[in-house]
Write a structure and sequence with these properties.
seven-stranded mixed β-sheet, alpha+beta, Aminopeptidase, 7 strands, about 160 residues, globular, 4 helices
Length: about 160
């Protein structure tokens, strides 16, 4: 059984440890520089199992959306719904702040790399759609896709008489 809660400053080392367990997704620069820096400036949530951090999501506001900065789940806890649960936390956080879309980017399908095929499949299964494809001059990411999902507030219908 997992629980989720907002990221605390004291969680940063444990979050980096989760990223270090996922080198197929997070290269040395991400683990050593980008994630530790971004955690100081982004909002986010952690998933805990038996009191241990087993997953995380960070997010920031830009272009009228909540954008996923980083999302990772320890290999021994994958395929248990933790990623979807963390994504749900970020979506609710965005809705709470009046945002109607959540977005991120990842490697495009022209890059044949199984970990990112799984990443794309995860996001598509959660309702994300592609809104932009870019070719880049970055050899580590020659094609990126920007994906988003509508998270507009669900309006409750009031059936009481006026």
């Amino acid at each position: 059984m997992t629980e989720t809660r907002p990221i605390q400053d004291s969680d940063h080392a444990a979050i980096v440890a989760v990223a270090e367990a996922l080198p197929e997704w997070f290269d040395e620069d991400a683990r050593g520089r980008a994630i530790p820096t971004d955690l100081r400036h982004q909002h986010g949530f952690v998933a805990l199992s038996d009191g241990r951090i087993v997953g995380f999501i960070s997010a920031f506001f830009a272009e009228g959306r909540i954008n996923i900065g980083w999302l990772g789940v320890r290999p021994d806890h994958r395929r248990n719904g933790i990623g979807a649960e963390l994504l749900g936390c970020a979506e609710e956080f965005g809705r709470h702040h009046g945002v109607t879309e959540i977005a991120t980017y990842t490697l495009g399908s022209s890059v044949e790399y199984e970990p990112y095929e799984a990443t794309r499949q995860f996001y598509f299964s959660q309702g994300f759609t592609i809104y932009q494809t870019n070719k880049t001059d970055n050899p580590g990411c020659p094609e990126e896709i920007k994906i988003k999902k509508d998270i507009a507030q669900r309006h409750k219908v009031d059936h009481t008489d006026p």
